[in-house]
């Protein structure tokens, strides 16, 4: 009877330890170890961007991969035993031995980015607000004039019809317009989002519009806007656009800068417009028409900072200057070495290691900006696409 009572007390304790071990060790391990998965994904993206900058510098085809799934596999092995001594005696004693083994075997699945959706995102120009707003809001933009100049160059490929290159050579007009933007931003001009009318391309006689038409249009967020002498109207809706706000538009140097941009001085704001903006009627002389860059174009521009090994100078084409000699860029370098460096942001290409030195803040910030731009642009094919899934076991 005493033996049976001892067993009744020991067995529940033993079973409790075995059952609770899986619940407390398995899934909860993710809480403390998920940062390791995050680090693995982050390092993958950084090295992908770095690798393709180097490939582009060598004129080698680019190729990206992406994390498609993370499968966290947990395994818990539990064993135990009980021993009872002194059966039948007054001093019956019992012992409980348990052993628990735990292993974590995560699997990260990568897939090549090679479908039409990826390449459309990769080669499609950024939105105006996206590229300029991202570049100038980034923390490095206000640190140094060189950063501001670099940010504007990486944002727009042409300004009011002046492209950055003409016949393979630097376009002086483009250079002057970048310098003009630099001057304005250095003298208290700022970028702001402002409301703007998005007009229909068809003008309608005013006397043809009824009150019912106006009510119906209002339901759809549309308005009839008079133009000219009021004889015609156009359907339009509000949209937000990016504009540069000029606090002292009549200052002589400010007027010269605005003239260099190809706009008429005297306005307090100038809207940046992409080629796809509808522009019926007369064009405004306060509009700055820009063609933004794509992510592929940005990576191509970044090749100027790659340090080419002496052994490879015969197989790598010299670069055309990216700007006039008077322009000073930040000290950015993607180094090369025959030996594997100790820094985390490194890749191997054609027998050499290319890396960003951890002690060079400008280079790290530049790479960080490119990775953020890449992730925001091609992290998904379109808004609403599913992100990589983390697959976790249920229970113990």
What's the SSE blueprint?
Layout: H1 2-25, H2 29-57, E1 64-85, E2 93-113, H3 116-123, H4 128-137, H5 145-155, E3 156-159, E4 162-163, E5 165-166, E6 169-170, H6 172-186, E7 190-199, E8 204-205, H7 211-219, E9 223-227, E10 232-245, H8 252-260, E11 269-273, E12 287-292, H9 295-302, E13 335-337, E14 346-349, E15 352-355, H10 361-378, E16 389-391
Parallel strand pairs: 1-16, 11-12
Antiparallel strand pairs: 1-2, 3-4, 3-12, 5-6, 7-10, 8-10, 9-10, 10-11, 13-15, 14-15
In short:
The chain has 396 residues and is an alpha+beta fold. The protein contains ten helices and 16 strands. Strands 3, 4, 7, 8, 9, 10, 11 and 12 form an eight-stranded mixed beta sheet that branches. It has a three-stranded mixed beta sheet with strand order 2-1-16.
Structure characteristics:
396 residues, alpha+beta, 2 domains, eight-stranded mixed sheet, three-stranded mixed sheet
**Overall mean confidence score, pLDDT:** 79
Number of strands: 16
Radius of gyration: 32 Å
Give the number of domains.
Answer: 2
Order of helices and strands: HHEEHHHEEEEHEEHEEHEEHEEEHE
Provide the low-confidence segments as ranges.
380-384, 389-396
Helix content: 25-40%
Helix segment count?
10
Oligomer: single chain
Shape: globular
User: What is the makeup of the main sheet?
Assistant: 8 strands, mixed
Strand content: 25-35%
Structural class, by secondary structure, is alpha+beta
How far apart the termini lie comes to 36 Å
Protein model, in words:
- The structure is a single chain.
- This protein is α+β, with helices and mostly antiparallel strands and 396 residues long.
- It has two domains: 1-116 and 298-396, no CATH class; 125-293, no CATH class.
- It is built from ten helices and 16 strands.
- It has helices spanning 2-25, 29-57, 116-123, 128-137, 145-155, 172-186, 211-219, 252-260, 295-302, 361-378; strands spanning 64-85, 93-113, 156-159, 162-163, 165-166, 169-170, 190-199, 204-205, 223-227, 232-245, 269-273, 287-292, 335-337, 346-349, 352-355, 389-391.
- The strands form four sheets. Strands 3, 4, 7, 8, 9, 10, 11 and 12 form an eight-stranded mixed beta sheet that branches. Strands 2-1-16 form a three-stranded mixed beta sheet.
- A hairpin with a 2-residue loop joins strand 5 (165-166) and strand 6 (169-170).
- Helix 6 runs antiparallel to helix 8 (252-260).
- The chain is globular.
- The two termini are 36 Å apart.
- Mean pLDDT is 79; it is low at 380-384 and 389-396.
């Amino acid at each position: 009877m005493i033996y049976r009572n001892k067993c009744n007390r020991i067995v529940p304790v033993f079973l409790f330890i075995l059952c609770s071990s899986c619940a407390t060790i398995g899934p909860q391990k993710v809480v403390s170890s998920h940062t390791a998965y995050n680090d693995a994904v982050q390092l993958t993206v950084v090295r992908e961007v770095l690798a393709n900058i180097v490939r582009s510098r060598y004129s080698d085809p680019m190729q990206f991969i992406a994390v498609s799934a993370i499968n966290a596999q947990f395994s818990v092995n539990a064993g135990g035993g009980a021993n009872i001594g002194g059966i039948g005696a007054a001093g019956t004693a019992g012992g409980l031995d348990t052993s628990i083994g735990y292993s974590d075997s995560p699997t990260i699945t990568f897939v090549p980015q090679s479908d039409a959706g990826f390449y459309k995102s990769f080669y499609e120009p950024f939105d105006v607000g996206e590229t300029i707003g991202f570049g100038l809001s980034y923390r490095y933009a206000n640190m140094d004039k060189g950063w501001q100049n670099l940010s504007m160059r990486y944002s727009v490929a042409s300004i009011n019809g002046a492209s950055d290159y003409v016949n393979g050579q630097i376009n002086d007009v483009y250079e002057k317009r970048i310098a003009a933007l630099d001057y304005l931003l250095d003298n208290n001009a700022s970028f702001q989002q402002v409301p703007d009318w998005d007009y229909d391309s068809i003008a309608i006689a005013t006397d043809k519009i009824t009150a019912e038409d106006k009510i119906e249009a209002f339901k759809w967020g549309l308005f009839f806007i008079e133009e000219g002498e009021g004889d015609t109207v156009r359907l339009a809706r509000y949209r937000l656009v990016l504009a540069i706000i000029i606090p002292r538009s009549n200052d002589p140097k400010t007027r010269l800068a605005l003239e260099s941009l190809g706009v008429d001085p005297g306005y307090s704001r100038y809207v940046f417009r992409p080629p796809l903006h509808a522009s019926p009627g007369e064009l405004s002389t306060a509009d700055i028409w820009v063609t933004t860059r794509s992510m592929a174009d940005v990576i191509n521009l970044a090749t100027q900072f790659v340090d080419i090994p002496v052994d490879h100078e015969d197989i790598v084409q010299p670069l055309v200057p990216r700007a006039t000699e008077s322009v000073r860029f930040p000290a950015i370098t993607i180094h090369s070495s025959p030996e594997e460096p100790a820094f985390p942001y490194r890749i191997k290409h054609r027998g050499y290691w290319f890396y960003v030195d951890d002690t060079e803040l400008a280079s790290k910030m530049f790479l960080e900006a490119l990775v953020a731009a890449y992730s925001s642009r091609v992290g998904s094919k379109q808004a609403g696409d599913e992100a990589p899934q983390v697959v976790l076991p249920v229970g113990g």
